[in-house]
């Protein structure tokens, strides 16, 4: 399920700049194509592609706190855990 455009990205990615969205999409698609070529299972391809692409967002995510007082990095890690939990369950 590589992404053809930024409009196809998950909603949580769309809140970032267009440049960052494009970086997310590029990393996701690159990892996806590489793993499919290697014969990795689709479930693992999807999981690993999201993990790699989300790392781009995480690196760009500035330290600090959001309105609820939660650290941005903690919030982001929770989003990733929720997403991966949905893939597994």
Q: Count every beta strand, where a strand is a DSSP E run of 2 or more residues.
A: 0
Beta-strand fraction estimate: under 5%
Order of helices and strands: HHHH
Structural class: mainly alpha
3D shape: globular
**Unreliably modeled segments:** 63-67
Biggest β-sheet, characterized?
none
Estimate the mean pLDDT confidence.
80
Distance between the termini: 19 Å
| Percent in helix | 55-70%
What Rg is obtained from the alpha carbons, in whole angstroms?
Answer: 14 Å
How many individual helices?
A: 4
Structure in words:
- The chain has helices spanning 11-14, 18-38, 42-60, 72-88.
- Helix 2 (18-38) packs antiparallel against helix 3 and helix 3 packs antiparallel against helix 4 (72-88).
- The longest helix is centred in the N-terminal third of the chain and has 21 residues, at 18-38.
- It is an all-alpha fold.
Write the layout of secondary structure elements.
Elements: H1 11-14, H2 18-38, H3 42-60, H4 72-88
Helix pairs in contact: 2-3, 3-4
Short description:
By secondary structure, the protein is an all-alpha fold. The protein contains 4 helices and no strands.
